[in-house]
Specification:
Strand content: 5-15%
Strand order of the largest sheet: 2-4-5-3-6-8-9
Order of helices and strands: HEEEHEEHEEHEHHEHHHHHE
Largest sheet: 7 strands, mixed
Amino acid sequence: MAQILARLEPTNVVDAATTSVPKTTPSVPKTSVPKTAPSYSHRWTIGASTPMAWAHDIVLLIMGPTGSGKSNFINKLTRRKEQRKASGLKSHTQGIDEYKLDRYGRHYVFVDTPGFDDTYRSDRDILRTIADWLEKKYRGEVKVAGIVYTHRITDNRMSGSVCKNLDLFGKMCGDKAAARVRMVTTMWDRVINVETAESRVKQLEGNFWKPLLDLEARHERFKNTSENAWYIVDELIGETEALLLQEELVEASRHLNETTAGQALYTQFQRLLYEQRETITQLAREAKAQKDPKLAEELQAEYEKVEQQLQETWKAMETMKIPWDRRIALLFSKGTRSVSIKLAFPEKDNLIHPCGLQHKVQIKFPGSDTK
């Protein structure tokens, strides 16, 4: 699709906008551990017959886009050899994996989560998987001690996929749990131009991540070593706080499609549906105008492909709708202590929000021509 449209029209590139959120969450005390070799246990994958995290475990979520280094971060913590690697848009974490580890008398559980825009699963299924896990833990009084959110520093643009993951993360997390978040930039060992990378950091901290950082989340640089991974984790651990999604599902008794994250996904489906309709209209117009039979045939094939995607998007959107009777009931339902975090995405001219299908509209970092 992108190759065809590239022959017909140029790609748009825009700058990032900024927003701010007042500071409301106090700092969390740090912890320290002795510098001796830890002991490690086996990897456990969630399933009907596998061990689960208990209330006394230190549970940390590892979240972020596909290919941003989540599994590698866990490998460094557990000192396991990397057995799988996500490259491009191909995801190898399709469910939720738990890695349990004993260290200095503490019991850790590192939870590897799939990113949105997964190769094999829909965003709705991924949100359901993460929500089910969070709800089960919360009902079992297992608290999340912290969240590591990974982002490739080598990315020279904030793609639609990256923005989508960040947007949904803010809706799942909520302001109360923000202090328990570390925004971790990865792949520093692959940086060629340090000045360019530092420029990207300024953009992330001053724009896209600013609402989270204003709520006492922190940015950490992952140097791809076991020692550095444990430094990030040790600095993160403190008092636990429920995520907004957990409060909504358990305390407010909401269905997934009624949560803030569910509604954000519904909105993204609406944008996606709009974009697909616009694409179909454009393809039909271009195919009709083409005198080149080969290009016209390619456009027609792409038209049929996008039309099928549109039908799938419509079905997915219908499943996320809230019936009128539930909307009325929600007006009188219990509220939550936390509120969602509105992250900073550009809204200018006729730009469609970057959390959608239109990946040709991307947010370019300064000096992005080089790594």
